[in-house]
Structure formats: C-alpha cells, structure tokens
Design goal:
By secondary structure, the chain is an all-alpha fold. 80% of the residues lie in helices and 0% in strands. One of its GO terms (molecular function) is transmembrane transporter activity.
C-alpha cells in the first residue's frame, strides 16, 4: 500500500517542476510590452521563492495538523488563481500589468507551491523510515522532470495562442492534476518509538546541525536557481557566438530537466550508501567546478553537459536536504521542520535568479554571474567540511 505514495508524490512535484520553464514566458511578454531588460521579468521568479519562504513553515504546520489533503487542494486552487490573475495583464500597460504579473505569477504562485510542496517529501519520509533517501529521491524526480513535461505543453500553447491564454490553460492543468492526486493521500500512524526520537520545531531551530544545513542549502542551490531562472536568456546570450543555441532552447530545457530528475534519484540512492555529509561535499564540489567552467563555455555547445551537471546536483540537493532533515530531526514534525529547512531554498531563489539577471544587465554578459555561482558552491563545501564533526 505504501508504494502508491512515491509515484503520486512524484506526479505532484512534476507539476510543481513546471516552474523551471518560467523563462519561456519572458520573450512573449518582452515582445508584447517592448521590454528590453531581463531583471524585471526574473523578479517574479524571485517573488515565488520569497513567498514560498514565508509560507512554507505555516504550510508545514497546516499539513501536520490537518493531514495532506487540505494543503494539496488549497494549493492547487491558489496556483490556478495566480495564473488567472496573470492572464488579466493583457488589458493594461506594463506599469499596471506588472503588478498583476508579480502578484499572480510571483506571490500567488509562491503561496500555492508552498502549500502543495509541504506534503509529498515529508509524507514519504514517514512511510519509508527504512529507505528515506531512496523514497524521497523518487518523489523528488518529479520536480526534476517537470520542465521536460511542461516545456512542450507550454510551448504548444504559446505557438497557437497568446501568452495570456496560455496562463489560463496551464493553471487549469495544475488545478486538475494536483487535486486528483490529493484524493488518496494520507499519513501513516506514527509508532511510539518514532515519536520519542523526533525533535519538535523549537528544539530543531536551536540545533547547530540545523544552522549548518540551512546555510549549506542556501549556498549550494544558488548556482542551479540562477541558471534555471535565466535559462532561456543565457542561451540567447550564448547564441551571439554560437547561433544554433537560440534554436536549441526547448531542447536545453528538456535535457536539463531530465538531468535534474536523474540527479534527485542518484543522489538519494547515494545518500543511503555514503551518508549525508559525504553526499553534500561531493555534490557541492562538482557544482562549483561546473559553474566555473560555464563562465567560459556558456556560449558553446558545452553549455549542455556543464549545465546538466549543475541541474543534476541542484536536483540532488533537493533530495539530500529533506532526507537529512528526517534523519537528523525525526519524522513526527516533519512538515514544519521540512518547511523551516526549505526557507533556505526560498531565499536562495529570491537572490540567485535576480542576481544573475542583474549582473547580465549591468555587465552585458553572464560570465560574472557564473563566477558568483561557483563561489557560492565552494563556500558550501567549506562550511560542511569544517562542520562535519556536528553530524557524527
């Protein structure tokens, strides 16, 4: 019976993974409103992660108190409302329309994602105390393949109708699929022995391991979020030297989406084999190296394998940290503790995409943005290496 939950959780996160196609909306909005700069558009992606960071802990508390169905149904509805708000942009000039863009595709989408995302990984960690890394990795695959699933769907709608009508169709897809997946969801009964080893949120927030994990999560996901939030503009920038890159943007999004998904499964399995600390060190180090290499190679076809490594490691981090949370702090209060640790992802998502776009606008190139991403990942390596004694 418990094996129904990983595929259901994976399907739910596949829908949420559609956020990684966000940059597909930039070009038609730029064209409609004659906007030249990227940063004003990436700000909505940053607002998603800010709103997520604010509401993921309350969403986790809601899940712990009501079970999984309420936050899933409510989140699906809020996501639809967000896309509907954005669809109304067409009736206004940019000075007014941007308020709908930021509130719909930024704030509302972030709230809906927080509500939905508070459920799948904590739920399967409760059902699979014996295979936490593997089970969470399977669920996390969904977030990784989301772009591969949603890119052709969104690209199709954009090719046959306006970006504003596309928002409506995409919102309806989210509402229907997530709501259907929510119906069979339920928590297992918590055994007494599990209750005794579970820290509550207050105890967790005072634990030194939490502080290390939070900061490491923030630093390590910076590179992935920066590339994800600027994916299409990065390839368009690279197309100035390698013209075929402009035609390969949909292929890039699909390939890196599969890398993202595969990374979640591989790193989840690897965590069960070599442990949390070794998994983090290996993940962060290869992210730093790939980011540094991309600073020189993003305008060549090498952008595909190098970005795929970053996506795979980013996806891996989203399997490593939920698993580490369950392993170190227990499962009774998994929803709210998971929410607390994932505020790090939210703040990284607030900073990274906008920083990447802003550096490009100021420097007229993404080179320095990749330097910053490499530095962030290296600092994550240093932090975990110096703090490894806390996890023994």
């Amino acid at each position: 019976m418990r094996w129904i939950y990983p595929p259901l959780g994976m399907l739910i996160l596949t829908m949420l993974g559609g956020i990684y196609t966000f940059s597909l909306f930039y070009a038609p909005i730029q064209e409609y409103y004659s906007i030249e700069n990227i940063a004003p558009l990436t700000l909505a992606f940053s607002l998603i992660t800010l709103t997520y960071s604010i509401f993921i802990i309350p969403a986790g508390v809601l899940y712990d108190r009501t079970g999984p169905r309420v936050p899933l149904f409510l989140g699906a509805l809020v996501i639809f409302i967000g896309y509907f708000i954005a669809s109304q942009m067409r009736y206004f000039e940019w000075d007014t329309a941007k308020l709908l863009y930021y509130s719909g595709l930024g704030v509302a989408l972030g709230l809906g994602i927080a509500l939905v995302d508070s459920v799948p990984r904590p739920l399967v960690s409760k059902w699979f105390p014996d295979k936490t890394g593997t089970a969470v990795g399977i669920v996390a695959v969904g977030f990784g393949i989301g772009a591969a699933v949603m890119t052709p769907i969104i690209s199709y709608f954009l090719s046959v109708t306006s970006v504003f009508e596309t928002f409506i169709y995409v919102g309806l897809i989210y509402l229907v699929v997530i709501s259907l997946c929510a119906i069979p969801m339920r928590d297992p009964k918590i055994e007494k022995k599990d209750e005794e080893i579970s820290l509550n949120l207050s105890e967790t927030l005072r634990d030194r391991r939490f502080h290390v994990l939070w900061l490491a999560f923030f630093l390590s996901t910076f590179a992935g979020l920066m590339v994800i939030g600027n994916a299409a503009p990065i390839l368009r920038e690279g197309a100035k030297q390698t013209p075929e890159l402009a035609e390969l943007i949909p292929a890039f999004l699909i390939i890196t989406s599969f890398a993202n998904a595969l990374g979640r499964l591989i790193w989840g399995l690897l965590l069960d084999k070599i442990g949390v600390v070794n998994s983090m060190l290996l993940n962060f180090a290869t992210t730093a190296a790939s980011s540094l290499a991309l600073s020189k190679a993003f305008s060549t076809l090498l952008v595909f394998p190098l970005a795929s490594i970053i996506y795979a490691n980013y996806g891996g981090a989203l399997a490593i940290f939920p698993s580490a949370t369950a392993i170190f702090f227990g499962k009774k209060y998994a929803g709210r503790i998971y929410g607390a640790i994932f505020t790090a992802w939210g703040f990284s998502g607030l900073v990274a995409p906008y920083a990447g776009g802003l550096i490009r606008d100021v420097m007229r190139s993404y080179t320095s943005a990749f330097y910053l991403a490499a530095l962030s990942a290296f600092l994550a390596v240093l932090l975990v290496f110096l703090s490894r004694r806390f996890f023994r």
